[in-house]
Amino acid sequence: MITYPQQAVAVSEPPPELDEGEYIAPTPRVSVQAFCETAESAAAVQAAAEDRRMIKAHARVQMGGVAAAIEAYRSSPTPNVIMVETETRGDDILDSLDQLSHVCDAATRVIVIGHVNDVTVYRELMRRGVSEYLIAPVKPLDIVRAVSLLFGAPNAKPVGRIVAVVGAKGGVGASTIAHNIAWAMARDLALDAVITDLDLAFGTASLDYNQDPPQGIAEAVSSPERVDTAFIDRLLSKCSDHLSLLAAPATIDRVYDFSAESFDPVIDVLRSSVPCVVLDVPHIWSAWTKRILVGADNILIVAAPELASLRNAKNLIDTLKASRPNDRRPLYCLNQVGVPKRPEIKAPDFASALEDEPIAIIPFEPQLFGTAANNGQMIAEVAASHRTAETFRQLAQVLTGRAESKKTRASLLTPLIGKLFQR
């Protein structure tokens, strides 16, 4: 039987599918029409159209290349973005695009997918007003990146990163972990962050931060037409120099029913104005919670070492992986590990079932977490030198992509963890 020490286990850095140094902003509500010549390019564009970052865009894929595009727009207005694939070379590319320019509206952006890797052709296309030239074969992220950059400010890196934290089941401590991660982002990484409590009926963020804001996210969701940066700023409650809280009312005097898009205006404003946004997502499955999780930049699932958590975590990971094929898979951590006399699923068994290691293992610490909760404080405020506080700092680093996590000093579990993380 493994004896879990009263210390947190070091965070494991997962290999990302998308470079952590790169951020692709969501596209605005634009229309995109693609005219491809090869089935491979058409499939890549279709996959890009289904990517979470293009959820607001209206995309359509057709075959026929530049000739089909010219014919389509002789008698109809052009969309915001036209994407054409051409297998021609040399002057033939320029001649066909010149014909396309005669039927394009002035504000339409043109992206060309070509099969010629020639800097001279590229420069000539740019001189003639083509917005982007991609060389086949293209990947879905190439398409998403190209469309995103068309509507971003020149040389400006998008501001916000959305981190969603959700429990695999109720009572596993997902909210507590979300609040402590947001605190670590603000205090240890010196990043301006907003913790958003999405559990409007039973949210605990205001209690954990010892705040009593008169307004919060309920006002924003109920008045989407008023949502802008100034309006959100008035709803935020200051928790520290770098951390603000968008609190839930935590009352049940009304029923909170939301459509899938209810939280979009709030998240869009936060993303545009705050470097880090941590969403404390309640453990319910609905259209709006799925939309929020699918749209997040990073997802952390919190699970306890028990069968129900294992089943639910696997279902969540499988569903979100299918909905986010171009993103890093959701991360998960094990919390409340080592409850006395409770049979538990061992971390290696959990990892085997989910085909991935936990990003962190946090031991059962009732005295530490209970004291922090009752005092309205974070773990780092109660015990700054405790290994659990260090774990939250490392989780904040991994989820924001700001730095590589540092391994903590050896513990009784070091040999086990070493074997666990060897792949």
**SSE arrangement, N to C:** EHEHEHEHEHEHEHHHEEHEHEHEHEHHHH
Structural shape: elongated
Helix content: 25-40%
CATH homologous superfamily grouping of the largest domain: P-loop containing nucleotide triphosphate hydrolases
- Using only C-alpha atoms, the radius of gyration works out to 24 Å
Regions with little confidence, pLDDT below 50 for 5+ residues: 1-7, 403-423
What is the mean pLDDT? 85
In the CATH hierarchy, what is the class of the largest domain?
Alpha Beta
Beta-strand percentage range:
15-25%
Oligomer: single chain
As for the CATH topology of the largest domain, it is Rossmann fold
- Strand order in the largest sheet: 8-9-7-10-6-11-12-13
- Class derived from helix and strand content: alpha/beta
Q: Between the first and last Cα atoms, what is the distance in angstroms?
A: 24 Å
Instruction: Give the number of domains.
Output: 2
Corresponding CATH architecture of the largest domain: 3-Layer(aba) Sandwich
Number of strands: 13
Sheet with most strands: 8 strands, mixed
Number of helices: 17
Task: Give a short synopsis of this structure.
The chain has 423 residues and is α/β, with parallel strands linked by helices.
What does this structure look like?
This protein has 2 domains: 31-150, Response regulator (Rossmann fold, 3-Layer(aba) Sandwich); 161-420, Rossmann fold, CATH 3.40.50. The chain is 38% helix and 16% strand. It is built from 17 helices and 13 strands. The radius of gyration is 24 Å and the shape is elongated. The chain starts with 30 loop residues before the first strand and ends with a helix. Residues 1-7 and 403-423 have low confidence and may be disordered.
